[in-house]
Amino acid sequence: MFETRRSPGPTVRIAFDGAPLDVAPGQSVAAALLTAGVGATRRTPDSGASRGPYCMIGVCFDCLVVIDGQANRQACMVTVRDGMRVESQAGAPDIAP
To answer: What average pLDDT does the segment 7-30 reach?
Structure first.
């Protein structure tokens, strides 16, 4: 679906589900994950079906991830930064009272 056209240059290191990924700075978390070959970023709470980035403009909420411990972040709306910890989101996280 995507063709990676990576030119030599600086990278930033993020971690996705504990695995280090060197990605181009300035791109969204969703774009970085897709470029790295990650398709699914969450599982639905009802059936556990895989979901991943779809619209890439913040409308659909299919790219929800946990970023640095904060759940329900839209990966397509957050820019990568060095040291960022991204985790796939499983179902609906508990909401604090």
So the answer is: 93
